[in-house]
Amino acid sequence: xxxxxxxxxxxxxxxxxxxxxxxxxxxxxxxxxxxxxxxxxxxxxxxxxxxxxxxxxxxxxxxxxxxxxxxxxxxxxxxxxxxxxx
Length: 86
Prior knowledge:
Elements: E1 3-7, H1 11-23, E2 27-31, H2 34-44, E3 48-51, H3 60-69, H4 71-74
Parallel strand pairs: 1-2, 1-3
């Protein structure tokens, strides 16, 4: 079963995304900001990360940069972004 790491500082958003992913047969785990994400990625090696951009401690863009600079993940990973205006 694919594992998706959901990274968002708002619990309601995490839970909403989780319901959608669970209905598609995926396993999920949570991180509350970019630093928490980096810790989870090192332990879990998720198949997909769904990440917010604006978060405390470390934002999503900085977390993606950290992952891209880590040779364990950058070589086998694709990075994309989706944004909503406003």
